[in-house]
Design a protein that fits this description.
Blueprint lengths: L2 E6 L6 E7 L2 E9 L9 E6 L4 E8 L4 E8 L5 E7 L2 E7 L7
Parallel strand pairs: 1-7
Antiparallel strand pairs: 1-4, 2-3, 2-5, 5-6, 7-8
Length: 99
Protein backbone atom coordinates (compact mmCIF):
# COMPACT_ATOMS: atom_id res chain seq x y z
CA UNK A 1 0.00 0.00 0.00
CA UNK A 2 1.57 3.34 -1.05
CA UNK A 3 2.24 6.04 1.55
CA UNK A 4 2.06 9.79 0.99
CA UNK A 5 4.59 11.66 3.15
CA UNK A 6 3.70 15.31 3.74
CA UNK A 7 5.85 18.14 5.12
CA UNK A 8 4.44 21.50 6.11
CA UNK A 9 7.42 23.76 5.55
CA UNK A 10 7.78 27.55 5.32
CA UNK A 11 5.38 30.36 6.13
CA UNK A 12 3.14 28.96 8.86
CA UNK A 13 2.62 31.03 11.98
CA UNK A 14 0.14 29.72 14.55
CA UNK A 15 -2.19 28.56 11.75
CA UNK A 16 -4.98 25.98 11.85
CA UNK A 17 -4.10 23.49 9.08
CA UNK A 18 -6.21 20.62 7.78
CA UNK A 19 -4.80 18.13 5.26
CA UNK A 20 -6.92 15.62 3.39
CA UNK A 21 -5.73 12.75 1.21
CA UNK A 22 -8.35 11.32 -1.15
CA UNK A 23 -11.10 13.01 0.85
CA UNK A 24 -9.95 11.68 4.23
CA UNK A 25 -8.61 13.99 6.96
CA UNK A 26 -5.05 12.87 7.82
CA UNK A 27 -3.91 15.98 9.71
CA UNK A 28 -5.77 18.62 11.72
CA UNK A 29 -3.77 20.91 13.99
CA UNK A 30 -4.96 24.27 15.30
CA UNK A 31 -1.49 25.72 16.00
CA UNK A 32 1.03 25.08 13.22
CA UNK A 33 4.16 27.24 13.16
CA UNK A 34 7.32 26.91 11.08
CA UNK A 35 10.58 26.36 12.94
CA UNK A 36 12.60 28.80 10.86
CA UNK A 37 15.92 27.20 11.83
CA UNK A 38 15.02 24.02 9.91
CA UNK A 39 12.19 25.19 7.62
CA UNK A 40 9.71 22.70 9.01
CA UNK A 41 6.35 23.15 10.73
CA UNK A 42 5.03 19.58 10.91
CA UNK A 43 5.05 16.16 9.25
CA UNK A 44 2.17 13.87 8.33
CA UNK A 45 1.69 10.70 6.34
CA UNK A 46 -1.19 8.68 4.98
CA UNK A 47 -1.55 5.25 3.44
CA UNK A 48 -3.66 4.98 0.34
CA UNK A 49 -4.75 2.22 -1.99
CA UNK A 50 -4.17 4.36 -5.09
CA UNK A 51 -1.17 5.17 -7.28
CA UNK A 52 -2.53 8.71 -7.68
CA UNK A 53 -3.87 10.66 -4.75
CA UNK A 54 -5.46 14.05 -4.24
CA UNK A 55 -3.83 16.09 -1.48
CA UNK A 56 -5.94 19.02 -0.26
CA UNK A 57 -4.82 21.59 2.30
CA UNK A 58 -6.85 24.27 4.01
CA UNK A 59 -6.31 27.00 6.56
CA UNK A 60 -9.99 27.41 7.51
CA UNK A 61 -9.67 30.52 9.67
CA UNK A 62 -7.89 32.35 6.84
CA UNK A 63 -10.04 31.05 3.99
CA UNK A 64 -7.02 29.62 2.18
CA UNK A 65 -7.10 26.27 0.41
CA UNK A 66 -5.36 24.39 -2.38
CA UNK A 67 -5.17 20.88 -3.78
CA UNK A 68 -2.89 18.85 -6.02
CA UNK A 69 -2.97 15.44 -7.65
CA UNK A 70 0.10 13.40 -6.74
CA UNK A 71 1.42 10.44 -8.73
CA UNK A 72 2.89 8.26 -5.98
CA UNK A 73 4.87 6.19 -8.49
CA UNK A 74 6.89 9.29 -9.44
CA UNK A 75 7.23 10.88 -6.02
CA UNK A 76 5.48 10.12 -2.74
CA UNK A 77 6.80 13.17 -0.88
CA UNK A 78 4.69 16.32 -0.72
CA UNK A 79 6.06 19.67 0.46
CA UNK A 80 3.62 22.43 1.38
CA UNK A 81 4.58 26.04 2.05
CA UNK A 82 2.51 29.13 2.71
CA UNK A 83 3.66 32.03 0.55
CA UNK A 84 1.73 35.17 1.38
CA UNK A 85 -1.89 34.07 1.13
CA UNK A 86 -1.28 31.11 -1.20
CA UNK A 87 -0.33 27.51 -0.57
CA UNK A 88 2.49 26.06 -2.66
CA UNK A 89 2.17 22.27 -3.01
CA UNK A 90 5.08 20.39 -4.60
CA UNK A 91 5.41 16.62 -4.98
CA UNK A 92 8.53 14.67 -5.82
CA UNK A 93 10.90 11.93 -4.85
CA UNK A 94 13.41 14.02 -2.86
CA UNK A 95 13.55 12.69 0.72
CA UNK A 96 12.06 14.80 3.49
CA UNK A 97 15.13 15.50 5.67
CA UNK A 98 15.36 18.24 8.25
CA UNK A 99 18.25 18.98 10.60
Amino acid sequence: MPTVSIALEDGFQDDHVVIMVDGRVVFDDARVSTMTQVGLASLASAETDRDQSRVAVSLPERGIEAAADVDLRQGPNVRISLVGDQLDIRAGDLPLHYA
